[in-house]
Amino acid sequence: MTGKQRILAAFHGERPDTVPFCPNLYYWFYNRLVTGTLPPALAGAQHPFDALRALGADILARWDTEHATREVYTAGEFSEEYGGESIYNCPLVTAFNRYPPHTSQRRRRFATPYGTLTQTWTLTEQAGADFESEHWWKDWSEYRAIRFLLEAREYAFDAVEFHRWVERVGDDGVMMAHIAQSPLKALHWLAGPENASLFLADHPAEMQALARIHEEKALRLLESMVDNPDAQVFISLDNLDSAFYTPSFYKDFCQRFFTRAAEIIHSRNKIFVVHACGRNRALMPLVGESRVDCLEGLTPPPMGNVPLSEARRMTGYDHFTVNGGMDAPHLEIMEDAESRLHEYVRALFASMADQRHFIFASSCTTPLPTPWENLAYLRDAARECGSV
């Protein structure tokens, strides 16, 4: 089977020739590329696909294609610029932004009739990643300006751009199509998780109004792209973690959106994935009720709290695909790595019963200290233990 066939078979509950092996190397790759620390095996590599192909992995990509789903503002005045300083003399690609050489900030500005909003992303050289250092929404008094922003913001799907990435990955894997995010995550992006949580507690009616504005626009986006033949797997780039997605917040600000999105996607016999980071145990029954087909990046203990062998039972949803297992404590093993990783994979795969609806993948990402050899050990173990 090809990587594409293998991944789609796993999502649809069929029996692939071997369990898909799908590490996410984006953060690891780009940081090592700009710092000149790629291993000799990747000499000349310029994109994570090059590394994944060198590894013999199945490519399940949630980045790159996010740029095919774009924000469009129909009112107000939007502008952005890059600034700051960095040591990198070539462009640096992160999960959310692409920084020109020697820049470290992305600044955005949106003028409304109710005041001007600003947002800043800041790249940190220590982490090799960027963070939202200034949120659009800093104080409740900006509510009218934020509502204006949401009412002015539409989403557009660039099918030509998406097709380019689908062709680039070819039969080696699957490009996931982005459907924006849940209303709760949209509020997190606007105000930050902490302020958004306080606003939700203090102003539930107003926050529900904002959530509904976003939800309807995101679902319109999905309707516009769901029949595209290139798009077989759709992803909502949330960060599902019970620390900020409490069960009550999920019920009030995610469940309706995820359920409606799943119905639209399933009516075309396609797959709906939501990204997850952290601890998900309390949310698993709600995810199953929403008919989300997969949480991308489930993390087993000790860093997470969902043993992969129990994940499908926790959701109560027979079509749920377990995706994860490559977590930081194992990826960063330095001593006796080959035997320890083979032992881990053998035990994990044995716990997964018949191994259908299972994708051995990164639990969010691959940390920078991960040795290239560990990825190869995990690949070899997965092919050995996951073959029919």
Please, could you describe this protein's structure?
With 388 residues, the chain is of the alpha/beta class. It has one domain: TIM Barrel (Alpha-Beta Barrel), CATH 3.20.20. It contains 15 helices and 17 strands. The protein has helices at 3-11, 26-35, 48-55, 143-152, 159-169, 183-191, 193-202, 204-225, 247-253, 255-266, 284-290, 311-315, 328-331, 337-351, 372-386, and strands spanning 21-22, 59-61, 69-73, 77-83, 92-93, 98-99, 105-112, 115-124, 129-134, 153-157, 173-175, 177-178, 233-240, 271-276, 294-298, 321-326, 358-362. The strands form five sheets. Strands 1-17-16-15-14-13-12 form a seven-stranded parallel β-sheet. A four-stranded antiparallel β-sheet has the order 4-7-8-9. A two-stranded parallel ribbon has the order 2-11. A hairpin with a 4-residue loop joins strand 8 and strand 9. The mean pLDDT is 95.
Rg, rounded, reads 21 Å
pLDDT < 50 stretches: none
Distance between the termini: 12 Å
Structural class: alpha/beta
Number of strands: 17
* Helix content range: 25-40%
* Biggest β-sheet: strands ordered side by side in the sheet: 1-17-16-15-14-13-12
The count of helical stretches stands at 15
CATH architecture: Alpha-Beta Barrel
Describe the largest sheet: 7 strands, parallel
Shape: globular
CATH domain fold name:
TIM Barrel
CATH class: Alpha Beta
